[in-house]
Design goal:
This protein is of the alpha/beta class. 39% of the residues lie in helices and 14% in strands. Strands 2-8-7-6-5-3-4 form a seven-stranded mixed β-sheet, sandwiched between helices.
């Protein structure tokens, strides 16, 4: 009954099986109402009135960080580009990453490679990955005297693998490297404590699992970078180091309704309780993984247990994932994601608290009919 009430807070049609929050989260009514009210104030020529200290405090408490290190770009892509273009990297300097990075987290480094001669190396990860120590060892073994940055995803968009981010940040600290984390997925999916993780930079997209409005992002920067990083977008106060990270919030006119919605989204999940939200997502993901894996011809490429969060990625022998996606959408009004990047060709499912076990079982039945 409780989760049925939660589902009622969303505008998702009753016959819709939405399994793609990993791309874009549907906003609950309270988030829509908050954003619309801010838009209404603008239409009435009233100040939208974002309270920056309060917004930073709310977000800082939710993700466990110093609020003075928060910047609010539109998404992870923008935050990652702020970092890449703000660092003083020279030709020949090396960035280490993986072959499971989203375009929003890797393209900024590809651009530096093409424009400035920075060397980008994408280390291959095992699929499925079952040993965090092996992943850390791969990075340690790949270090050279030219390595300057390690840039990874906290949770990989390809399979839901939870990377050993804390150990990789520690490796960076040990060797004097810059740690940059693409954290598009964890807020609203996992209980997050950036203070314990302690990266140099952490970029995220709360419009996914946190269910904030589309175009809502944040970037956290460690204290020692707030005066050193060069701004990518320059507006008033860009060179006022006394502003710290807040000078990166000087972006000209922008849609403040998304920030009002962000605060409301945090309140929505806090009302339910993040421990409860995380447990529900884990239970739904596990149910999907077990039932999908039991189907003939299916190979699940996501890891298992605590090494995975929120997502189930799989391939079907002899079937094109895009065609399978089209069939499921036509027959069952299902929305999924195909991981076509890197020529992987996997289907990815990402359930959230608005999904029910019965919906997931219905999806598995639809999938079974296509095999």
């Amino acid at each position: 009954m409780f989760w049925r009430i939660v589902r009622g807070e969303f505008l998702i049609p009753g016959d819709r099986i939405y399994l793609n929050v990993g791309t874009l989260g549907p906003q609950p009514r309270v988030v829509l109402d908050a954003a619309i009210e801010t838009m209404r104030r603008v239409a009435m020529t009233l100040p939208p009135g974002v309270d920056w200290p309060e917004l930073k405090r709310r977000v800082g408490l939710f993700v466990g960080c110093d609020p003075e290190g928060l910047v609010f770009p539109r998404n992870t892509t923008e935050g990652m580009s702020f970092v890449a273009h703000g660092l003083e990297l020279k030709p020949g300097d090396e960035v280490l990453s993986t072959d499971h990075e989203h375009v929003g987290g890797i393209s900024c480094w590809q651009l530096l490679a093409a424009r400035r001669g920075v060397r980008l190396r994408q280390l291959p990860l095992p699929t499925p990955a079952d040993d965090p120590a092996e992943i850390v060892a791969r990075f340690r073994g790949a270090l050279t005297r030219r390595t300057r940055v390690i840039s990874i995803s906290h949770v990989n968009f390809t399979t839901g693998l939870v990377m050993p981010a804390r150990d990789i940040v520690a490796l960076c600290r040990e060797h004097g490297l810059v740690s940059v984390i693409d954290g598009a997925h964890p807020p609203g999916l996992l209980r997050l404590n950036l203070g314990e993780l302690d990266p140099d930079f952490y970029a995220s997209s709360p419009h996914k699992w946190l269910l904030a409005p589309q175009g809502t992002g944040f970037l956290y920067m460690r204290a020692d970078w707030r005066e050193r990083l060069w701004p990518t977008l320059a507006s008033g106060g860009w060179d006022d180091r006394s502003l710290g990270a807040h000078r990166f919030n000087h972006l000209g006119t922008f849609d403040e309704s998304r920030l009002t919605g962000l605060a409301a989204a945090i309140g929505f999940l806090e009302t339910i309780g993040m421990d409860r939200v995380e447990a529900r997502i884990r239970a739904l993901r596990q149910r999907l993984a077990e039932r999908v894996a039991a189907l003939p011809g299916v190979r699940v490429v996501s890891p298992s247990g605590p090494l995975v969060a929120g997502m189930v990625s799989f391939e079907v022998a002899g079937r094109d994932a895009l065609e399978l996606q089209r069939r499921l959408a036509e027959k069952g009004n299902v929305r999924t994601r195909v991981i076509g990047e890197y020529d992987y060709g996997w289907m990815r499912l990402s359930p959230h608290i608005y999904n029910s076990p019965e919906e997931l079982d219905r999806f598995v039945q639809l999938l079974a009919q296509e095999l």
